[in-house]
Amino acid sequence: MSIRDRYAPSPTGLQHIGGIRTALFNYLFARSKNGQFILRLEDTDRLRFEERYVQNLYDTFNWLGIKWDEGPDTGGRCAPYIQSERLDLYKKHAQDLIDSDGGYYCFCSTERLDKIRQDQESARSEGAEQVSQSGYDRFCRGIPAAEAGKRVAAGEPYVIRLKIPLGETTRFYDHLLGHIEWKNEDVNPDPVLLKSDGFPTYHLANIVDDHLMEVTHVMRAQEWLSSTPMHVIMYGNFGWTPPEFCHLPMVMGQDGKKLSKRHGATSIDEFRNNGYLPEALLNYVAFLGASYEEGRDIYTLKELAERFSLDKLNKAPAIFDYKKLEWYNGQYIRMKTDEELAALCLPFAKAAGLFGTGGEGSGSPSPEQMRVFTAAMPLVKERLSFLNEVPQKIAYLFADPEVPPAEEFIPKKLDLARTVDLLKICLDLVQPLADSPSDEAAENFIKAEAEKREVKLGDLMMPLRVAITGSRVSPPLFGSLRILGVARSAERVNRALQKLEGS
Ligand code: GLU
C-alpha cells in the first residue's frame, strides 16, 4: 500500500519552526516511500482564522520549495485541501454518527456548560478529594434518540457530541512512543464534534479528512498526543481503521524550554527577513529529531528524502541551536555563485538603501551599481553568515565613507607625522594596486614596495585600508581597490591625507 501523509496546519498564526519541522518530516517520509504528501488547511476555527496566515503558509512553502502532491484542482498548480470548503462532508458524517449511536445531540446551554466548569473549578480549588472528571457531564447522553430527534426538528439549537464508550480502554501504537493505552474514563468526556453553527470542531474535520483522504500515517507534534485516544475512539465509532501515528517530540531552546520568541527568531518569516537561506533552514530543521548518516551535515532535499526513516527518529526533545543553523547558512552561502549570491542579497541591499532611492524610489541599482554589487560578492562570501549583513559590509563601495578620526589611521608605535608619510607612499601605490590583475599580484607588489622602502607591510596596509574602506576591519583591501578603481581610490587617500594634515 502506498504511503499517504499530510501537514494540516490551522491558519491561526505564522508558520514557525515546529510546524515546518512537521511539514518537512511528512514530506520526506512520503518521498522516501514514493508516497503522497498532502497539504490541508484546517481553517474551521473561524474565531482565530486570519487570511494573512493562509498567505503566510503559501509564501512559506514557496520560499522553502516544498511541494505538496495533491489537492482539489490537481493538474497544473494544485491547491491544498481547505476544510471550510468541505463543511457538508463533516455535517453528513456527524449525522452518520448520530444514526449509528456513535454520537448524540446535546442541547445544553452555554450558561449550563459554564456552570459545570465553574463548579468543577471551585471543587478543585477547595481541594476536594474526589473531583469528578473535568469537562462535560454527559447530561444529554441519556436523552432518548426519538426525543432528541423531535427537539432538533422543532428547531432547538444543538451540538453533536462523540459518545465515548465507558468502561473500556483505548489502545494505539505510536511509532516513536510505542504502545499507548488510555482508560476511556480519562479521555475528554464526549467532546463536541459539530458546533451549533454547523461548523465541525478540529477533531471531527481532522478525522473525517484523514479517513476520506486515505491518510496512512499521521505524523504531528507531541502536543496532539492527548487528543489521539479520542481520535482513535472516533475512528472506532465510525467503523474505520485509524492510520498509524507518530508524535514528534517538542523543539526546545538551549535552556530546555519550549522554543519561543525569547530564544530568537521562530517564525519562518523572521528567518527569511534575517537573511537565512531556505536550503540552510531545511537542512538544519531536518536534523531536529532525526538522524541520517554518521558524520555528514549537508544534504539536499532529495538526499534527505532518500535517507529519511521513521526508525531514525529521536524520542528526546530536539534542541534548536541557532549557532549550528548559522553555520549551515554560511555553508550554503559559500555554495552560491557570485551572481546567485548577488541576486539573493539584492532585496536586502535595496531595502537598506544601498543604491540610493533609485528610479521612482524603488531603490534599484543602476547597471554600474549592479556591476559593483556583483563584483563585491567574492569579497564578502567567505565570511558571511546572513544575507542581510551584506549592505552594511559593502556600503563603502557605493558611498564614500566618512573619514575616520586621525587615531584610527595611526599604526601601533607610530605617530601622526609618520602616518602621513606612509599614506603619501600609499598614494603612489594606488594605481598599480587597483590595476593589478589579482590579489596575489597586488600582494607581491605591495610586499616588495614595503621592503624597498623599509617599512612594515602592516604599517602600509592599515592606513590605506582605513582610507579606502573607512574602517580598520573590512572586506579584502586589494579587491576593494580593484572595484573602486584608481581615481576613486586615490581620491579617498587624498581626502584622508587632507584630514590628517589638518589635524
Ligand atoms: N490543525 C492541527 C494543527 O494546527 C493539525 C494537527 C494534526 O496534524 O492532526 O496543528
Would you give an account of this structure?
This protein is mainly alpha-helical and 503 residues long. It contains 18 helices and twelve strands. Strands 1-2-3 form a three-stranded parallel beta sheet. It has a three-stranded antiparallel beta sheet with strand order 4-5-8. Helix 1 packs across helix 10 and helix 15 packs antiparallel against helix 18. It starts with a strand and ends with a helix. The model has no long low-confidence stretch (mean pLDDT 95). The site of glutamic acid has 8 residues, from helix 6. Glutamic acid (GLU) binds next to helix 6.
Mean pLDDT equals 95
Radius of gyration: 32 Å
Per DSSP E runs of 2 or more residues, the count of β-strands stands at: 12
List segments where confidence is low: pLDDT < 50 over at least 5 consecutive residues: none
Shape: elongated
Q: Briefly note the structural class of the backbone.
A: mainly alpha
Determine the fraction of residues in helical runs and give it as a percent range. Answer: 40-55%
Order of helices and strands: EHEHEHEHHEEEEHEHEEHHHEHHHHHHHH
Biggest sheet, strands in spatial order? 1-2-3
For the structure shown, list the relevant keywords.
binds glutamic acid, 46% helix, 10% strand, elongated, three-stranded antiparallel sheet, mainly alpha, 503 residues, single chain, three-stranded parallel sheet
In short:
This protein is mainly α and 503 residues long. The protein is built from 18 helices and twelve strands.
